[in-house]
Amino acid sequence: MVMWKYYRPNFEYEKKFLDLAWPWAGHKYFIYDFIRNIQPKIIVELGTHRGTSFFSMCQSVKDSKLKIKLFAVDSWRGEKHSGRYDHRVYEEVRTIIKKCYPTLDISLMKTTFDRAKSFFRGQSIDMLHIDGLHTYEAVKHDFNNWYAKVKKDGCIIFHDVTERKKDFGVYRLWEEVRKEFISIEFTHSHGLGILFLDNKYKDLSKFKDYWQIYYPSQCQKFLGPFAERMQIQLDQQTAKSNEYLRRLSVIQSSKFYKYWQRYCDIKKKLKGFIS
């Protein structure tokens, strides 16, 4: 592959779930272009949560009009890194898919990664996205457990490859596996690593320096107006709060308020004396 086409997507799901501040949001424009360019037949995501990455993939598949199967695997119960949550998160994901992507071949697999593995044949997955528990032991287990399910010319994507806080360990596994395969890494939005299992997409490496500038800028382009709107709303709320404080100060400085305060104090003392 020599040519790479850039798109200007309209993410329909944002009307239901505005995710610009979410960790994966910085990669949505890349993953959209990635799918439209490489055209995988089967996509599997391990760890969907609220759906930013998965919805972005769905939008790409919908706009491309290609016959692509998408699988989202998640218990939708959460874990120590994402936090625990109840059934409402799963219901929100399902509702958005029904509303925005009803015609796509989508399977929401509400189960563990280990249990879902038996559903897929060996070397059947074109694109695997691993974004579950982020400890080194957990992500290494997921990688080893699912590696044989990916086609020899497929790719595996990892999120949080630059995150080093607490016990996050994806960066450790990423440093190990990237030495063995052709890879591309983004450092923004907690990092995204794309691992190519053979030389089919080796030509994409020539774009990586430009992509480091282009794709973060796409997110910032749309995040800028959003941030401006939020700042305007914050300024409006601050102005209202200041006005309420000013009015309260006027009331508290009035003679009536002072007499009322004295009345309340005397009433309280009399009540205590009588009781």
The total count of strands amounts to 9
Structural class: alpha/beta
Give start-end ranges of low-pLDDT stretches: none
CATH class category label:
Alpha Beta
In percent terms, what proportion of residues is strand? 15-25%
Return the average pLDDT rounded to an integer.
89
Categorize the overall geometry.
Answer: elongated
Q: What fold name stands as the CATH topology?
A: Rossmann fold
In whole angstroms, the N-to-C terminal distance is: 89 Å
CATH architecture: 3-Layer(aba) Sandwich
- The quaternary structure here is single chain
Query: What is the tally of helical segments?
Result: 8
Helical percentage: 40-55%
Rg over CA atoms, rounded to whole Å, is: 26 Å
Defining key terms:
8 helices, two-stranded antiparallel ribbon, 275 residues, elongated, Rossmann fold
Description:
Helix content is 47%, strand content 17%. The protein has 275 residues and is of the alpha/beta class. The strands form 2 sheets. It has a 7-stranded mixed sheet, sandwiched between helices. A two-stranded antiparallel ribbon has the order 3-4. The model has no long low-confidence stretch (mean pLDDT 89).
Summarize the structure.
By secondary structure, this protein is an alpha/beta fold.
Topology, please?
Blueprint (H helix, E strand, L loop, with lengths): L27 H11 L3 E5 L5 H13 L4 E6 L3 E2 L3 E2 L2 H14 L4 E6 L2 H5 L7 E6 L5 H11 L3 E10 L10 H8 L4 E5 L5 E5 L11 H46 L1 H20 L1
Parallel strand pairs: 1-2, 1-6, 2-5, 6-7
Antiparallel strand pairs: 3-4, 7-9, 8-9
Helix pairs in contact: 1-2
